[in-house]
Amino acid sequence: MYQSIKHWSSADQPREKLLHIGSKSLSEAELIAILMRNGTKNRSALDLAKELLAAHDHSLAAVAKLSIHEIVKIKGIGEAKAVTIAAALELGRRRATENAIQKSHISSSLDAYDLIHSGMRDLTREEFWIILLDRRSKVISVEEIHIGGMSAMVVDPKIIFQRALERKASSVILSHNHPSGTPSPSIEDIRLTEKVKLAGSYIDIKVIDHIIIGDGAYYSFADEGKL
Which UniProt keywords apply (predicted)? Predict the structure, then answer.
């Protein structure tokens, strides 16, 4: 017989467990149940959370890639619950990037990849970011420039270097993801890199790399001798 979470013993209720034992003691399903707050007439929030995870191989990384439309395919998870879940996962991504920035000094393409891959790996559409560096190659900031298709016509060098000048950056690393999982550069990627590099040379801000993030791999223009 179905029984809502509020009628469970306090030791089994996810919120009570978090309050008295701490968040690390909870399963991923229990944490998601807390975000959803309540279930439906016949199913608890924990049941819904378990179904969401089971539908995606019990992988939090897979759930993090879902759109709102995909999350609400689970019967009982409406738009409000889906938005809350998506917001929490986005906060997790941003925290990971922020922590990386605070301790980052870029001396190789791997350093750049390590800085941004946690924020880019779950994206379902292409995004173009820049890493701004000071004269000692310490990270000043990581900034989103464009969301959507990659195009030399869409990604405007003026915006890139306006951000660089505002932050007093000495150099910049370009980066974008390939949701297909293959990091090999397209002709458009190559043209864009050349265009931005040339623009930077006029104002003495060097483009030191362009990192393309794929599925567990990356491509570096600098490593391949393309800069």
Answer: Hydrolase, Metal-binding, Metalloprotease, Protease, Zinc
Give residue 160's domain range.
105-220
Tell me how many domains the chain contains.
Answer: 2
Query: pLDDT tens track of the chain, all 227 residues?
Result: 455 666 565 556 888 888 888 888 889 999 999 999 888 888 989 999 999 999 999 988 888 888 899 999 999 999 999 999 999 988 887 787 776 666 578 999 999 999 998 888 778 789 999 999 999 999 999 999 987 765 544 789 999 999 999 999 999 999 999 988 899 999 999 999 999 999 999 999 999 999 999 988 999 999 999 99
> Does 161 share its domain with 122?
yes
Q: What is the DSSP string of the chain?
A: ----GGGS-TTT-HHHHHHHH-GGGS-HHHHHHHHH----SSS-HHHHHHHHHHTTTT-HHHHHT--HHHHTTSTT--HHHHHHHHHHHHHHHHHHHHHHHHT-B--SHHHHHHHHHHHHTT-SS-EEEEEEE-TT-BEEEEEEEEESS--TTTS-HHHHHHHHHHTT-SEEEEEEE-TTS--PPPHHHHHHHHHHHHHHHHTT-EEEEEEEE-SS-EEETTTTT--
Does residue 110 fall inside a structural domain? yes
